[in-house]
What we know:
Chain A has 23 helices and no strands. Chain A is an all-alpha fold. The radius of gyration of chain B is 20 Å and the shape is globular.
Amino acid sequence: MLSFPDLLNKFGPMNESYKIISSSMLYWFSQKKWFVFSVLLAIFLLNLSTPIGLTVAGYHSLIILLMVFTLVTFEPIPFPAIALLTLVLQVLLGVAPPDVVAASFMNDAVLFVMGSLMFAIAIVHQGLDIRLAKVIIKMFGRNKRLFLAGLMTVSAILSSFLGEHTIIAIMLPIGLSVIKNVDTTQTDGKNAVLLTLFSVAYGTIIGSIGTPSGGARNVIMINYLQEFSNINIDYWEWMRHAYPILIVQLIVAYFVLQFAFPTTLKNIQIQGYKKKVAASNTKNNINHLFSSLIILFIVTSWFLFNEEFGLGIIALCGALIFMICGMVSWEVINKNTNWGVILLFAATISLGFQINDTGASSWMVEKFNGMLALMPESSLNLSWSFMAILTGLTANFFTSSATISLLGPMAIELQPSDISFALSAAIASGFSFLTVISSPTAMIIYSTGLVSTRTFFKVGLLMFTSSIAILYLMSKFYWVTL
Amino acid sequence: MNILIAIGGKEYSKPTLDLGMKISNAFEATTTIAYVGKKISQFSEKDVSVVHQNLDDRELYRPGVRTLEWAYDFLQSKNYIEQQDNNITFNDHLLIDEENSRMRVLLKGNHSNKIDLILRTGEIIDQLRSEVEANNHDITIIGGGGNKGMHHKLVQFIDSSVMVVKNYSVNKKYKILLPVNNSLGSNKAIEIAQQFAKSKKLSVEIITVLENKPSDERLKNILAKTKKRFTNAGIRNTATVLEGNPIETVVKYAKDDSLVMLGVSPKNPILKYFFGSKPISIAQQCNCPVLIAK
């Protein structure tokens, strides 16, 4: 009997056009295998009977959720295509009628994602890193270790208000400037480089949990809480819950990094950099002054008017003012804004709404609670731990905002009247310490070519574990006092 | 002729670059030296791009440029680049954004226009395939690091001859090992081997492996013709008929000082994808540079 390869070879010599077509198809398949897999998986699941207690629409929404997880994780097709597929499937599979899908596609959280991305481009375009470098050197430049601690603290504070993607773009050139001439072939030099880069990265990542505007996930969770549980959390209340965690995390991160990257820091050049940024330029000074005023105005508005106008509208105002003042052109914003991510967030938030409305999230939570009932330990502690670790880990492989837009409804459903579950899920999803794909900060640090995925994971594991512990202790002993 | 040399980290790319440039010189080819940077998640690609623009503005090298600078210095030190103005250094460069994820390093001053330095970002197979498609490269040369699956995919999906540079020593004297058969790819390998051997004055060991049919006159004739061709061209050569499994025989016959040059398999691409092919297996198992000609 002929084997399969022999059978194929029996077809005789292949002509050139057949070879080209089959090669192109193979290449397409090798690039899109995860798309093919997710479609086949969805077809298989659609042919199974709907689980007991779950509506058909709810079951279909969970199948779409699974597809989105696969497609976003492995990226076989562009993000805008995933977004459109999510919307189309919601209608085709009867999860929701077209008008409902369209209505859930746009809300304040999506406007916030759009506004904050555009606002970030406008801020980065002003070249504020030189100004910030001067301030940091003046405040912390006396000592190299103090300088790095200052770099981390300033990154965290700014990132908590302006978002990590803005601050990493501003702070990274400062970090890279001081390590420009460090010899990385020696362990001491290599550790100095890693310590500097990780100080900026961890400061930025940790900062993003501090306020609602620190990350899109925070705004998405606030939005869900309002829609599903009718609970309003304002800017200040979020800060009261999250900022103490941020401060403790910063202290822990400082020691974790000193432990992970022991170095004398002898090759770091702060004085050389100080001379380089010392030059003053009147035009730039005026530009920086105006930029700072606009930023201050927007952050103050988030504090004072977030309930009235929404965080998204205020973020859009920031981008708008920069454009009206001629400080950034539409071309620059258009070129550098990730429209695919905005579409994807809009689509996943829309799916999140349908998962809640179809009862799929209640069904999942019911099943989850059923499992917990079998455990001897207090189910509240267990479900909190499971939820926090799950969202934290998922965010590391799937990015934080997308995780919250899809798992957020379930986190709220676990304890609908207790905001600690929802807040913990949003905050834990910001612990993007494990993988380089988890956040823009991690990816940017990785893209410098100076940090390996292995180093990121090894140090990140320590940081992730301690962050979960800090979050648990704070929610248990501090939040109850508020 | 166009040759593409893909480089990675500095410490591993010296042999690839050196052998690549020797081949390029032998063919008087136009050479593209490409560094493919890490793939960026779609979530972060714009953020990364903004940061890289910022680094350019601050005169801080974006990732990959330092590797290209090292490559440039290496080419200069080995006299692969003819530079008219000695005052021009790599510091005087501009990055030209030519298309999505491709940037060209433009050096100011007078340089040989036969060498291009390219920075790409993304999945390596995808980027090299795009580079070869866009610029019609005839040979792609890449280091032997990375996993075996990557070399398999390169041979499968890149529309040029592929050379995998493994265990190459810059100072060692090499011999070309040329396994021949009746395929079109083998003819191409013979052409490349002849030109390279003649230019670099290397000797050639021509072999053919008889599998199952010890009296295959067709292969023996090809061997004899090839030997005559090399002798006429004034290239030192030997011709040997071997018997056994082609993969095992060639791998066993190849020494550390061999440069194996052989033709691509004429097999069905679908079969090659799932079951591999003899040339791919030889490239994976040999501990020396292997060129698979297409």
